Amino acid sequence: MNNTTVSDNNWAAMATELDSNDPVLIATHTNPDADAIGSALGLYYLLKALGKRARVLLEEPIYEQLTYLDPDGLCEHYLPEGKLEFLSGERIFIVDAGALHRLGKLNDVLNVEGMRKMCIDHHMGDGAGFDCAVIDTSASSAGLLICELWDYLGRELTPQVAHVLYSAMATDTGFFRYPSTDGRTMRMAARLLEMGIDPEAAYRNFNESRRWQVLKVFSAALDTLESRLDGKLATLYVTREMIEREGVQYSELEGLIELPRSIRDTQVIALVVELNGDEGSPVRCKVSMRSKGSVDVNKVCRTMGGGGHVRASGAKMQCSIEETLALIEREVAKELNL
Ligand SMILES: [Mn+2]
Fold first, then answer.
1. Which of 17, 197, 218, 235 is buried deepest, with most CB atoms within 10 A?
2. Residue ranges with CB less than 5 Å from ion ligand 1
3. How much distance in Å is there from the Cα of 337 to the middle of ligand 1?
4. Given pLDDT bands bounded at 50, 70 and 90, which one contains residue 146?
């Protein structure tokens, strides 16, 4: 399937998929963020409203900072038990991830022959491997797309679903600051606010609910902060040792990369996180990049086998932290014509 964007036609194809009475399994990317969890639950509530059987399956339990999104514990998780029972005729809807490999270990167990796979996403991707895909890179979050799907199907959003979808939209736009924040986003956010969403509580739940140990890792990471390319590139890293010492989950590092954004004149921020190399995976570290200005970090990450958005991208690397940092510096220098 070629790259698809939202149009009535594509939602029409998705609506046909939603119309079936076969059970639905909703999944999302590994280390799910608030948009992943919010859009998955938003789709779950929609299917329930339509009288369908549905469940949300994550790779791992939701990390503590985001448990407020799922107070009833609706999301199931595959790890650490590693057990998954399929229901007869089950179909898979994947949200906030445009490629099956982004599901991590779930991809290995979900790649069941004959299962229909659907995708609703806003990252750059080609929809390969899906039977039906709505991939709209102009949408600021997957949560926004799920709101629009509720509208397309003529269903009234409930306060319960408004809560998770507002969080999805707010967090993926840096609380409505990133350039992806547009009129379409704000009009939908306005509707959710008018349903009684408390914007301060949504901010507090997400930004002021970290554990002490997470800040200890942030502190260690900030010690590695380095100014490169005449201050235009800020790099920092997290080692496996820092993570293990404080007992934090990788997903709890969300937000760390935003801290160096506050440095004046910095155009690109790169965070390298050393992975635990489980099950002999050749991937040694993960790169996250943010651009404050003109540098296209999607282009930079693509040269390293990754990708994402123009101002927020990532890649997985098979080399050391030092080698990765050197590679990043070289590629960003090219983009800055240095
Ligand atoms: Mn997203």
1. 235
2. 35, 96, 141-142, 172
3. 30
4. very high
